[in-house]
Write a structure and sequence with these properties.
mainly alpha
Length: about 80
């Protein structure tokens, strides 16, 4: 006899958290790339690059924190 015990609430929670985390982590790393490339272009053209560098640094810090949180959650379970 085959018995499947699936808590659908937890399954849906895993799905939406995974989608949200995937989109957020991808978006943050995209902002890192955007900030670095725009800063490089601004420096080459003689414009101020500090706002783009700040964007890249903040986005990378949030990206790293998100990855660390994800790894911590996987290891602690």
């Amino acid at each position: 006899m085959l018995v499947l015990a699936v808590d659908t609430h937890l399954l849906w929670q895993v799905i939406w958290v995974s989608v949200l985390a995937g989109v957020a982590i991808s978006a943050l790393f995209s902002l890192v790339i955007l900030g670095v490339t725009r800063a490089s272009d601004a420096r080459r053209e003689g414009r101020a690059a500090a706002p783009y560098v700040a964007l890249a640094v903040v986005a990378f810090a949030l990206f790293a924190a998100g990855v660390a949180l994800g790894v911590q959650e996987m290891v602690s379970k």
